Amino acid sequence: MNQATFAERSEFYRLDAALKLDPRRRSDLGQYMTPAPIARFMTSLFEDMSGEVRLLDPGAGVGSLTAAFVERICATAAKPRSVSLTAYEIEPVLSGYLRNTLDEAVGQCRRVQIKASSELHDEDFVLGHAWGTQPDIFNRPHEDGGSFTHVLMNPPYKKINSASAHRAALRAAGLETSNLYTAFMFLAAQRLRAGGEMVAIVPRSFCNGPYFKPFREQFFGMMGLRHIHIFEKRNSAFKGDEVLQENIIIRLECGGQQGRVTVTTSTDDNFSDQTTNEHPFDRIVFPDDPERFIHVPTTTGKSTIELSPAVHYSLADIGVKVSTGPVVDFRLKAHLRDMPEGGTVPLIYPGHLRITGTVWPVQGLKKPNAILRNVETEKWLYPNGFYCVVRRFSSKEEKRRVVASVVDPAAFGDHTVLGFENHMNLFHENKRGLPELLARGLAVFLNTTAVDESFRRFNGHTQVNATDLKLMKYPSREALIELGKWAKQHDEITQDMIDEQLGKLTA
Asked: I need a surface site. Which of 70, 148, 339, 445 has the fewest CB within 10 A?
């Protein structure tokens, strides 16, 4: 077999195995196998592949990443002295292919005079390490004698139940996390020697999810971030698989001093239109951010939000709260009505929202326009008033992620209370409406291009959560009221006008 065809051979294994795997089991295990173009790009990010190379590929699948890794080292002019390949895979359908890949990899290395060996562990990577079948993981972290020089991974994407064996094992290992992929990253990082490199393709959710804060603190205490690659199209990394999360590729160095970070972007896995920028780490993780959100700037220079001295207040500073709409329609189905009738009150969905205000009721909305007011629904209702609301869901390909609207009480006639459906977030004062000018000012600010661009940098989801909005910075209450006054003076407001007003804000 020629070196140039090794990764293609693994690609055949990947496609063949996908036909044999039970889709339900794949979903249960969170398995998404790496296509050859992605595997080759990931391997290209490693900087040092000299000397005695020891590779760890946890959750290896058919061995696509290992194949790409070996393909590269066999083709390079300055070859390593030796290569040791260690792979983990618990799926029997995949481990047969993986064994073939490892055998072929060893043969490839030996043909170009590289000493090579391989190990295949058919055990759970997380449970095996935490419960002692690999006892050296915590006793000898970062020592040259039993650790790895490289980690290359596409870990499983699956939430961990709080009462599961995996969750208990990770607690024993000193980590509280809610997803297997971060568990794999954490445990693999502990196996790296000082100066060792990790390249991983993972969901972007760990960058800003509040539940991942403990992971971010511990993981980046061990690892220095060196490179981030993002795809403009969310489904580019795993074509053919129903992967809804946005995935990123990252390269990290174990124990390294945190320096500048390279950020690359491509439309898809062809990488033909790749752009490259370099940023200081304080543009990736803001020094004053207690949540340690990981931002991914796609342009050089600081954003308008970062540069503005006027935008540095929290929602608590301005006396405003933000909450997810409390009406979960499928739980209150018996109380919903298509159109208003006696005993009902308005129920607001995203379909009622316009940037210029709220339209209610809406014929042909395909969603209820009203909800009965009774003892079962009363606790979910808010007093009629002015609110600023933001849709929770969008697609990554939409022009804007953050879209704010103003709920005007005049749209609902004599109704004294309103229902807000769960697919929106609402800004309020202790579950009551806002002063009109404050609500309008908040909507103007949230609809600026600068806010949308800033939000996209740290949020890789297709949704805008109340927690994300709570952690943002805002202008002062007085400045927002001034924006509201300006907005009320104009019947029509363009995006350029909104962006111009943000630039005029002063501290």
From this structure: 339
